[in-house]
TrEMBL record, chain A:
CDD domains xref list: TRX_Fd_family (cd02980)
Keyword Metal-binding: yes
Entries under Pfam families matching the protein: 2Fe-2S_thioredx, Complex1_51K, Fer4, NADH_4Fe-4S, SLBB
UniProt keyword annotations, A-Z: 4Fe-4S, Iron, Iron-sulfur, Metal-binding
Family indicated by similarity: Belongs to the complex I 51 kDa subunit family.
Protein name: NAD(P)-dependent iron-only hydrogenase diaphorase component flavoprotein
Automatic annotation (TrEMBL), chain B:
Biological classification of the source: Bacteria, Bacillati, Bacillota, Clostridia, Eubacteriales
Highest rank taxon of the organism: Bacteria
Protein name: NADP-reducing hydrogenase subunit HndB
Amino acid sequence: MPVRMELLVCGGTGCQASNSNRVLEVLREEIKNSNLENEVSVLMTGCFGFCEKGPIVKVMPDNVFYVEVDEDSARKIVAEHVVKGRVYQEKLYVEPDTNEKLPEQSKIPFYKKQIRIALRNCGKIDPENINEYIAADGYMALGKVLTEMTPEGVIDIVKRSGLRGRGGGGFPTGVKWEATRKSKSDIKYVICNADEGDPGAFMDRSILEGDPHSVLEGMAIAAYAIGAQFGYIYVRAEYPLAIHRLRIAISQARELGLLGKNIFGTDFCFDVEIKIGAGAFICGEETALINSIEGGRGEPTVKPPYPAQVGLWKKPTNINNVETFANVAPIILNGAEWFASIGTEKSKGTKVFALAGKVNNVGLVEVPMGITLREIIYELGGGIKGGKKFKAVQTGGPSGGCIPAEYLDTPIDYDNLTALGSMMGSGGMIVMDEDDCMVNIAKFYLEFSCDESCGRCTACRVGNKRLLEILNKITEGKGEMEDLEMLKELAETVKDSSLCGLGQTSPNPVLSTMKFFYDEYLAHVRDKECPAGVCKELLKYYIIPEKCVGCTACAKVCPVNVIHGEPKKVHVIDRDGCIKCGQCYKTCRFGAITRK
Amino acid sequence: MIKSLEELKKIREQYKDTLQNREAEEKNIKILVGMATCGIAAGARNTINAIIEEVRKENIDNAVVVQTGCMGFCYAEPTVEVRMPNSEPILYGKVDSERAREIVKRHVKNGEVIREWVLRG
Ligand SMILES: Cc1cc2nc3c(=O)[nH]c(=O)nc-3n(C[C@H](O)[C@H](O)[C@H](O)COP(=O)(O)O)c2cc1C
Ligand code: SF4
Ligand code: SF4
Ligand code: FES
């Protein structure tokens, strides 16, 4: 009897954390209890990108998308939907603006403008079953490449497609492959960079968890193109589920002969090994990554020579990011022209972004290059949470910058983001509203860079620390006007005299916030005020006389006894002695205390 | 062990059906089977399974078969609605597995409406 209905349960890290494993068990039990186990099946897929609304359960072919499913609602879904054919209304996505319930995934604004190439199979197939990947045309591209194409032909397609590296730099992938192909050597390597160090980014993890074969296939195609026999996947230890699924995928591919010797009966041999990294941000930099695989310290080395000439164990090596590899097979199957028809003049295809921060919908979105920031934030993201005012969007992680409202209509691509003083990076996108202090944001990212600097270059090691000291001074209300100049000058120096991308980009958050939000810096330094009310030392606490009922609660909690007033009369704070602990603010039940 | 592109294609064919349900959004023919209590009592489960088997057997890969609630024709259950692109939906009544297979072969595959079983449309 053919299976007529399938319940796809998200088995990504996010949904597993919200108990999707149990939901899956309950669904199976209930279906068995209804004697439907031969007609209806339950399976686990990869991430749908909407992790915050997880666990996700999608019923096919009915095309109904359930969110936040727990054990109880899992039972109801079986009783109502599976058995009686009635959609269970309680767990549909509700559009916040209209309160409308949207059963279909493709009608939910979060998914509307998405085009899924790298994420094509995530949430669709069982990542632990190679046959499902094959059913979705998996390994067809590798077969075509090995049996019908020359390595030069492969490089040509990838070059013409316009694919650029998704790991940060945006270097044209085909050009990199060509350079590695041209390096003469018997032994060459392919490395997949799955270090994913940007805080907040998780697209690489989701691809590895949801569709590991797409990465293996992309690597094998790259290996054929450049003439490599062996590959490494460098993945951080914090990604146990990704590592688990990769292991399964590798062993299944070996069993079918899709990895190993004489693949597709040709002379081509290729196998891969997983290397687990300790998870330092700097190990994502390609030369540091190579050092780390070799067992050395994860420190960058001077380029040139590039890995394409002298890489792993001094052999020519091609390094690409997870998402870059995931794009390769569709390009081979659908053609360079198809891929190049999506995107902008110089940035082709799609990019996966990890949308986070103060928007209504957060998660992973794969959108065509050239979509505007406004579309992502206001359409897919559903606008700013709580109807607050948008202030900035931070792209590119710790190497990126903050983009203000006047550039919301900029089409997103590598070059436009760089021109705005930010970056594509690996696709982090954090939205900030009126309650975020831009000086504080710059400080946050700089702290990250200081922690992650490998310490090799003085400019990066000492310079970033000095920058951070100045920012600390400013947020503590001790900043002087000279500090602002110093900040700018020093930031430029760090940029110019660091060896690797970390130091070269770490001042970006400072520089871009100084460029677009200089008034906030001025307010901190000159007026000793934090306009967003974030920097604790700059806050001033006031009691609003009209609202104060004289309950005395605040005076009692004030640890330094600077709140005065008689019972039932308006109280006042003696600001000279106030240590800004905020206790009174939390205590007042009448909203009579404000801070600015 | 896969030793040629042909062998890979064979595996793909073998497992193609596993993704049929999940690719529903890309399909333009819809066949709905009433599966409320009345439908099930009248044998709708056999009907839907027969339809799916026949659809797969005839290699019709642009049709999705879904169950739906009560369509208000309890006296004529099991009911089946066929929605073809660019034409009005046709509702059939008293569809047992036999009729179900006929509907797939004649209507879904060849576009012939089987008048004598039509309830509405
Ligand atoms: C500090 C630093 C961290 C990096 N981290 C990553 C990372 O986590 N993942 C990644 O793919 N690339 C990372 N990169 C970029 C890599 O050096 C390299 O350019 C990339 O893996 C190449 O692949 P692509 O061309 O496919 O993007 C990092 C670069 C720098 C400077
Ligand atoms: S720029 Fe910073 S992280 Fe990069 S090599 Fe120099 S010290 Fe290390
Ligand atoms: S807690 Fe609020 S209402 Fe009570 S005395 Fe203090 S300011 Fe006035
Ligand atoms: S982990 Fe389930 S939607 Fe991302």
